[in-house]
Design brief:
The structure is a single chain. By secondary structure, the protein is mainly alpha-helical. It folds into three domains: about 1-180, Up-down Bundle (Growth Hormone, Chain: A), CATH 1.20.1250; about 195-250, no CATH class; about 255-455, Up-down Bundle (Growth Hormone, Chain: A). Helix content is about 75%, strand content about 0%. The chain has helices at about 1-25, 25-30, 35-55, 60-65, 65-85, 90-105, 110-120, 125-135, 140-155, 160, 165-175, 195-210, 220-240, 260-290, 295-300, 300-320, 325-340, 355-380, 385-420, 425-440, 445. Helix 5 (about 65-85) packs antiparallel against helix 11. The longest helix is centred in the last third of the chain and has 33 residues, at about 385-420. The two termini are about 15 Å apart. The model has no long low-confidence stretch (mean pLDDT about 80).
């Protein structure tokens, strides 16, 4: 079991490290390829859009090819895309290879969760997920540090080429350690082409619109409107064909009729907004106000990552035996307390550096406490055969929440900076009140979690 967990953790670590490393090297890529920053930004945006386009296919791929085989194929695509990115000869080729990399990276996490949950069983979900999250939580810290070292000593191409040996090692360990699936004589489900035409473009339009809405103009709002319309069309289609076993919808909306699943996904959506939004905001504060470099900003985030790592491991050990509601409320409370110091930025009695570090550790601890019992409650609410559909749904909603949270906080920060010219610290302090409000919103679904522990299977 722990060998399986180790292998399955390597895949998301690869994808998360790659994302944070590449964000550090955008300026170097632009200079070397003689490209504008506007064009090079598509190196990151194209990757995110590819993930939004492909992630809904994870449940179908698990049913059609088997979760193990589909996971291996995703890692192969990611490693191939990484190698090609390192050999890119122009901005256009780099963007194209990043899209290929994103197609592979999109399904690594939901497919890995599918394999792990089905192997662990309900009684061990939290413990195993807590152990898997331990190294993943360190990626936001290691990414900028590794990115800075690579840029200083090897050049930007090695930001991608380093994925190749690590990816090959992951594949070798997976072939040896991942359990072989049971053979089934039943044919896999057929692809829901109508749903694919509606759902994947809707998510792509929403992610693109939310990521560009802060730039002004009509493109962002138009993309969001198109995404909402396509999403509504998909909802109607999915409810109509939901009982078709031969061609199930990409995301089965009937799962949301289960209280446990609906509560857990709502919580994951809000947590995604808080996590990704604050991961954008905190490093930006250190870089723009404290004038820290990318490597230093990554190190300053270490307390938050360490807090998440420690509490996710502890929560994993007790969440299988304790009711999720008190644990999740405790985690949200820690996150709220850890955010308060940041609302004082730019004031006459602004927080000291040690208080910000302690606050980050408390925020990270809260996130770690929330994640594990939430995931255990979600996967515990569905049958083993429906785990792939649950994994696809929760990962899609978590990423959408992240895109929404980042977009909202970007707009709020821009407005605050315009209202406080020459006082960047005050603008960040005002924006963190919105982070506090987003964190508080998660209390509502948290109150609907079970208040008593479930029996182990």
């Amino acid at each position: 079991m722990w060998k399986t967990a180790t292998v399955l953790a390597l895949g998301p670590i690869l994808a998360l490290l790659d994302t944070t490393i590449v964000n550090v090297g955008v300026d170097s890529v632009a200079r070397d390829l003689h490209s504008s920053m506007a064009a090079v930004q598509w190196v990151a945006t194209g990757y995110l859009l590819a993930i939004a386009l492909t992630m809904p296919l994870s449940a179908w791929a698990a049913g059609r090819f088997g979760a193990r085989r589909a996971w291996l194929g995703s890692v192969v695509l990611f490693v191939l895309g990484s190698a090609l990115c390192g050999l890119a000869w122009s901005t256009g080729s780099l963007i194209g290879f990043r899209v290929l990399q994103g197609v592979g990276g999109a399904m690594i996490q939901p497919l890995g969760q599918t394999i792990m949950v089905q192997a662990a069983g309900r009684s061990r979900i939290a413990r195993v997920m807590g152990t898997m999250l331990l190294p993943i939580s360190l990626a936001p810290v290691l990414g900028p540090v590794l990115g800075g070292l690579v840029l200083d000593h090897l050049g930007w191409r090695w930001m991608f080429l380093l994925n190749v040996p690590v990816g090959l090692l992951t594949l070798l360990l997976a072939l040896r350690w991942l359990p072989a699936p049971e053979r089934s004589r039943r044919p896999g489900p057929r692809l829901d082409v109508t749903g694919l035409v509606q759902l994947s473009p809707s998510l792509t339009a929403l992610v693109y619109g939310l990521s560009t809405i802060g730039e002004g103009g009509s493109v962002g709002p138009a993309a969001i409107a198109a995404g909402v319309l396509l999403l509504a069309a998909y909802g109607r289609h999915a409810l109509r064909v939901g009982r078709d076993a031969a061609r199930p919808p990409l995301i089965d909306l009937r799962l949301f009729g289960r209280r446990g699943f609906a509560v857990a996904t709502a919580n994951s959506f809000l947590q995604g907004a808080v996590l990704y939004g604050s991961m954008f905001l905190v490093p930006l504060y250190y870089q723009q106000v404290e004038h820290a470099g990318a490597v230093e900003a990554g190190l300053l985030l270490a307390p938050q990552a360490l807090g998440t790592a420690v509490t996710s491991l502890l929560a994993g050990r007790i969440a299988d035996r304790v009711a999720p509601r008190p644990l999740i409320l405790l985690g949200i409370g820690c996150s709220l307390l850890g955010t308060l110091a940041f609302t004082r930025l730019g004031t006459g009695s602004g927080p000291a550096d040690w208080l910000l570090a302690a606050s980050l550790a408390l925020r990270g601890a809260g996130m770690g406490i929330v994640m594990i019992p939430g995931m255990a409650a979600l996967y515990g609410s569905v049958e083993k055969s429906r785990v792939p559909a649950a994994a696809g749904a929760i990962n899609v909603l978590n990423r959408l929440g992240g895109a929404l949270g980042t977009a909202v906080l970007t707009l709020v920060l821009q407005h605050a900076q315009a209202g406080h010219p020459g006082r960047p610290g005050t603008a960040f302090g005002a924006t963190f009140w919105w982070v506090l409000a987003l964190s508080a919103l998660a209390i509502a679904p948290a109150l609907l979690y079970p208040g008593t522990a479930r029996k182990a299977d």
